[in-house]
Design a protein that fits this description.
alpha+beta; 8-stranded antiparallel β-sheet; 12 helices; 31% helix; globular
Length: 382
């Protein structure tokens, strides 16, 4: 039966792009025509990029002003072989956008006195075996990794691990994935507990971020039993090749650090509003959260605590993307702070990814970010 269902995907996958589905939520009645124009162009871009399902939201002045869903979330092999429409409340694997929650969590934990960002991740059990394996592998994230050099938790959070720690930026998601293990170590637990269920980091994120922000459609890990409906509603990830859609495996269930959260654009809008309204942390923590690391010569590096920070055409852009080709999801969370404006996008294929370099921040090269910036910031499109 499953094989028949997957073959059906290749035959009617192109129907994914036939319609957009608006999520009926409470939004202002006087939405400017720019949202309708942006929505049409966004859906056209989705179709060009062969994305089965896409959800989008815009936050302006700490208010959700627009959100919408397009296409299909997954192919249901049950009665009638029906497709499910994407809405703004459809849960997606947000991939590396999870890192924004990690940055905030560790700053909260530092303020609570539970962790010290100057402590060394080298002290964690199993570090030598892990680091030696990574540094001797062909994986790019192990290049120029000095396992005997002291590497602080802040180095990991800022992606300044490779080379002499603290001196240069290289995006390193594998190192981020050690942070859930590190927190188990801080609490005196075996580091293996990080993979055994709803771990300490996931618990902290639920208590200190998801709960206060009212994010009821977000799972800090897929082991969160009280949010099982989110798990079962989560979109299916797909790969598109030569006119065919293939359903990919489901993501791993635990929160590792580099990825692990499942959410919706409406819930991520709540997260954005909670961040900017100061609901989630003190002023000191919020100021530090978006402050980029600095190299020894005083140059700002393109990453803060779980967020890229860059300048583009005179605008400060704070953002993070997600890309998980193995499970078929991409995401984009883009903030323009001086304009109090945010774009959030979630997709169930890798069609949104633009190949951002590991050592730079170039969100403007994303076709989706470029569309948004031109429509709402620079106004350069006809």
């Amino acid at each position: 039966m499953q094989r028949i269902a997957f073959l059906a995907i290749s035959l009617i996958g192109l129907l994914f792009s036939n319609a957009a589905f608006s999520q009926k939520i409470s939004l202002p009645n006087d939405l400017p025509s720019s949202y309708a124009a942006f929505s049409e162009k966004l859906d056209s871009l989705r179709k060009v990029r062969h994305i089965p399902g896409l959800a989008a939201a815009i936050v302006k002045d700490q208010e959700l002003v627009w959100s919408e869903g397009y296409g299909k979330s997954h192919f249901d092999t049950g009665d009638g072989m029906t497709f499910k429409n994407v809405t703004a409340d459809t849960p997606f694997w947000i991939a590396s956008v999870t890192k924004t929650f990690l940055g905030l969590s560790f700053l909260q934990l530092e303020e609570e006195g539970i962790v010290n960002l100057d402590d060394k991740i080298n002290d964690m059990p199993g570090w030598s075996n892990f680091c030696n394996w990574l540094s001797n592998s062909t994986i790019v994230f192990g290049q120029n990794l000095h396992c005997n050099s002291p590497i602080t938790i802040q180095n990991v959070l800022n992606h300044t691990v490779n080379g002499k720690p603290g001196t240069q930026f290289l995006y390193n998601p594998i190192m981020y994935s050690r942070l859930s293990r590190y927190l188990e170590y801080v609490y005196g637990n075996p580091i293996s507990d990080a993979e055994k269920g709803h771990n300490r980091l996931a618990q902290h994120i639920q208590k200190n971020i998801l709960g206060p922000a009212g994010m009821t459609r977000t799972m800090s890990s897929q082991w969160q039993r009280e949010k099982s409906k989110v798990f079962f509603d989560m979109a299916q990830g797909y790969k598109y090749t030569d006119g065919r859609y293939t359903a990919l495996r489901r993501p791993k269930r635990h929160l590792a650090g580099g990825a692990g959260i499942v959410s919706t654009v409406n819930d991520l809008a709540k997260y954005d509003i909670a961040l900017d309204s100061g609901l989630l942390a003190s002023n000191e923590v919020m100021q530090k959260l978006f402050t980029p690391a600095v190299s020894p010569d005083g140059t700002n590096l393109p990453y803060a605590f779980g967020w890229y920070v860059q300048e583009y055409n005179g605008e400060k852009l704070i953002w993070h993307a997600g890309w998980d080709e193995e499970v078929g999801f991409t995401a984009l969370f883009l903030k323009i702070p001086e304009r109090n404006l945010t774009l959030i996008l979630l997709a169930n294929s890798e069609g949104m990814w633009w190949g951002n370099p590991l050592d730079k921040a170039t969100v403007e090269k994303s076709l989706f970010a470029d569309l948004f910036l031109d429509e709402f910031v620079f106004h350069t499109r006809d």
